[in-house]
Amino acid sequence: MNKLLKHVLLIAALAIPVYSANAADIGISAQDTQALIQKNENVLFLDVRDPIEIMFIGFTDAVDINIPYLMVDRSQWDDKKKRFRLYQNPDFIAQVKAALTAKGLGDDATIITMCRSGSERGLPSAEFLKKNGFKNARYVVHGFQGDSLKEGEKSGFRIKNGWQNEGLLWGAKPNPEKIYRTDR
Hints:
This protein is of the alpha/beta class. It has a single domain (21-165), classed as Rhodanese-like domain (Oxidized Rhodanese, domain 1, 3-Layer(aba) Sandwich), CATH 3.40.250.10. It is 30% helix and 18% strand. It is built from six helices and seven strands; from the N terminus they run ααβαβαβββαβαβ. It has a five-stranded parallel beta sheet. A two-stranded antiparallel sheet has the order 4-5. A hairpin with a 4-residue loop joins β4 (70-78) and β5. 28% of the residues are buried. This is Rhodanese-like domain-containing protein.
């Protein structure tokens, strides 16, 4: 019986998603992010989504700038994930430094990153910033669009939390001065 219990516990442990040990420490809610921005604190607020995603999902002008952390390679398909391959923006750190300078902030500023849901790009980009010397990097926990419902009539729809669902300002069209562009 003891051996069976250990086996069951091991299987259960493997089914639990693994998150960074400091995810709770660097996570911040959309509401708290908005409050920091309104106080005009020492904050740089980044949307780290690919700009094409922003075009289809929406944007908040509360962000200072869109600097993608992961970008879409439309020339390579990922069969396992059923999507185009994502690769890390090789200029991410340099672009963040430039955005800090443009806003008159130093490396000690609070940098808050936001992706669609907080998990695939928000948390990893904040951790990457921390590893590269930005000790006050954080991420919006449920991102721009939030979590999808697991049950019910609207199962699968991202209407649970996140910037878009918490009554914060957003729109369907990105600000051309803030969106990541390669044409200038």
